[in-house]
Design brief:
Layout: E1 2-10, E2 16-21, E3 28-46, H1 47-55, H2 60-65, E4 70-83, E5 90-96, E6 106-114, H3 121-125
Antiparallel strand pairs: 1-6, 2-5, 3-4, 3-5, 3-6
């Protein structure tokens, strides 16, 4: 079953966090699509780290340093990432690359992933 979440939000200089993805099997795919009037940073991070970034925005670059699921400086793009059950809950973060000059416009973010709801043991047996 595909679960889709599309959001339009008012651009701000603050990091926006969308929580709610937990891989239910290894190699779970997430598709992220963005359309923005300004270049953006988009990444999937462990939820606990994403939440910490609100309190400590100075840790942003360090948090992204070793993160394979990110895109920087994008305005219109769709990309995919894979996660394993051991990765735990993930959150999507978005923020303009240049937070000093944020226009009064909206960005569109869409995240899609597959969640197993029946015959899930078949996914486990493929490992």
């Amino acid at each position: 079953m595909d679960l889709a979440g599309q959001r339009k939000y008012q651009l701000t200089s603050f990091l926006k966090v969308y929580a709610g993805f937990t891989p239910d099997h290894d190699a779970a795919q997430v598709s992220i699509k963005i359309k923005s009037p300004v270049p953006m940073v988009v990444a999937m991070l462990p939820s606990d780290i994403a939440i910490q970034l609100h309190a400590k925005p100075e840790l942003f670059e360090t948090a992204l340093e070793k993160n394979p699921c990110q895109q920087r400086g994008i305005q219109s793009m769709e990309f995919q990432c894979s996660f394993n059950q051991g990765d735990g809950p993930q959150s999507l973060i978005v923020v303009p690359e240049d937070t000093s000059r944020v226009p009064h416009k909206k960005a569109e973010i869409e995240m899609q992933f597959v969640k197993c709801i029946a015959n899930c043991q078949m996914l486990e047996s493929k490992r």
